[in-house]
């Protein structure tokens, strides 16, 4: 039985997820806080199991979808499992796990050090869409390409911030001086962070974003954990997308609630 980061999973998952399987398992593990069976906490390093329920549309080969739901349990509570069923009708997944990070990169140029505010965002690849005649892309990358994001040529930050151009404006960042940062698609929040504005990194990010622009790095296969953002696999698999996105500044909540 394959094991990734202490998580035991059903080897047949690979038939569905292909080269994305390990990343999918890693992300499910990173998102899980408690055991889906006993609701107890998942201690670091303890043996875990992954259960994946797959639903597939009626005509996947032609144009339809597969939807994945993953549950992490203590291995002692439940063995790994994979279920599969065909469903009549599509619809988007009810819940998508999202992962994001904000940071600043400094790029040396002829004019000295220039700082760029970055947001990195991905979600669990729980939906794949088959585009007729095209290679199969994760849903997030496909969606952002439709919103005029561009494929990143490499995982090199200097190249990314230089190349990234404005997308179609439907993806934006909302920020406030008291540390609330959110990412919106069509004005709907996709992901948000509530940060301490006194924290040095947060203060630097807000200041950098205020003086210019925010570069969004996104797409399926992006590895985002609490401690790192790894673009390499996404870039190598052709699913890393980038764009400059507008920042809309909101009033700090304390002021806003006074009105
Ligand atoms: Zn348990």
From TrEMBL:
UniProt keywords (A-Z) are: Plasmid
Query: What domain of life is recorded for the organism?
Result: Bacteria
- How is this protein named in the record? Uncharacterized protein
Organism name: Paenarthrobacter ureafaciens
């Amino acid at each position: 039985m394959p094991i990734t980061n202490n998580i035991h999973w059903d080897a047949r998952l690979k038939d569905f997820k292909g080269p994305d399987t390990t990343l999918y398992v890693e992300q499910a593990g990173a998102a899980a806080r408690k055991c889906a069976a006993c609701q107890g906490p998942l201690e670091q390093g303890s043996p875990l199991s992954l259960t994946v329920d797959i639903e597939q549309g009626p005509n996947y080969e032609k144009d339809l979808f597969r939807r994945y739901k993953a549950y992490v349990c203590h291995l002692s509570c439940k063995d790994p499992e994979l279920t599969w069923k065909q469903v009549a009708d599509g619809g988007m997944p009810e819940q998508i796990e999202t992962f994001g990070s904000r940071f600043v990169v400094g790029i040396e140029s002829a004019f000295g050090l220039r700082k760029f505010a970055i947001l990195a965002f991905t979600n669990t690849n729980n939906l794949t869409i088959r585009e007729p005649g095209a290679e199969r892309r994760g849903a997030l990358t496909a969606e952002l390409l439709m919103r005029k994001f561009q494929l990143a040529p490499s995982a090199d930050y200097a190249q990314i911030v230089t190349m990234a151009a404005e997308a179609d404006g439907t993806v934006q960042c909302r920020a406030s001086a008291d540390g609330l940062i959110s990412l919106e698609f069509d004005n709907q929040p996709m992901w948000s962070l509530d940060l301490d504005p006194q924290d040095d990194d947060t203060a630097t990010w807000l200041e950098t974003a205020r003086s210019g622009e925010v570069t969004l790095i996104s797409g399926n296969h992006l590895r985002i954990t609490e401690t790192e953002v790894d673009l390499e696999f996404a870039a190598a698999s052709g699913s890393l997308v980038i764009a400059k996105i507008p920042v809309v500044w909101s009033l700090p909540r304390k002021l806003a609630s006074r009105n």
